[in-house]
Design brief:
Chain lengths: ~110, ~110
């Protein structure tokens, strides 16, 4: 059903490691987003992109970085993972134009030990 | 800052009954509202949306009501089924800012 894919689904990694969370969508959407969500809590926007070579920081400060080299791909990178980065990371995309709902992937649940 | 919030963090309903999930928003300039359903281990799934020029919109078994006077949004689920058990989020958007803001979720439990 989902046209937006995130890998890996689960990741347990040690402190100090560099990680990249992958997100791809096949809908041709220009807008893509990364949200951080703790269990049962609201979603917080950490990065977004309006198209190729466009990236912006969201409302929640994050030590992660993103890139948008291709329309369909919006990876998120943590250069040095810390336990405070333990969370669920959700990728989403939406159509260009106003008033378009976000389509979400199933998330990556990250645990940093 | 502006925020979206829910009145009830948890809601339990009997299978077959109707469910009503409420949401308050504080940004009077918000003009687009969305309801999402999030099942355990999955990302939020779009349910229904409504623009500020409407006060009611119906989907399959779901109805969203918007009261701009009191800045209130509700999601009504008819004949609630066990598969409706999930966390429900309302979200708002002010078109000129083009960012979606999510409120805290309401956990809906359906009692068989």
């Amino acid at each position: 059903e989902a046209d937006i894919y995130q890998t890996p689904r689960y990741l347990v990694i040690g402190t100090g490691k560099k990680i990249t969370l992958e997100c791809s969508q096949t809908m041709g959407h220009d807008k893509m987003y990364w949200y951080q969500q703790d269990p049962g809590m609201e979603l917080h926007l950490i990065h977004y992109s309006y198209g190729v070579n466009s990236t912006e920081k969201g409302d929640l400060s994050s030590e992660s970085t993103v890139s948008r080299i291709r329309t369909e791909h919006f990876p998120l990178t943590l250069e040095s993972a810390r336990p405070s980065h333990t969370s669920q990371y959700l990728c989403a995309s939406s159509e260009t134009g106003y008033n378009s709902p976000l389509h979400f992937g199933n998330g990556t649940r990250l645990t940093v030990t | 800052g502006e925020n979206v919030g829910l009145h009830l963090p948890t809601l339990s309903v009997q299978e077959g009954d109707n469910s009503i999930i409420n949401c308050a928003y504080s940004n009077s300039a918000s003009d687009y509202f969305i309801w999402y359903k999030q099942e355990s281990g999955k990302g939020p799934q779009f349910i229904i949306d409504i623009r500020s020029n409407m006060d009611k919109r119906q989907g399959q078994r779901v109805t969203v009501l918007l009261n701009k006077t009191v800045k209130h949004l509700s999601l009504q689920i008819a004949a609630t089924q066990p598969g409706d058990s999930a966390v429900y989020f309302c979200a708002e958007m002010e078109t000129s800012y083009d960012k979606v803001i999510f409120g805290p979720g309401t956990s809906l439990s359906v009692i068989p």
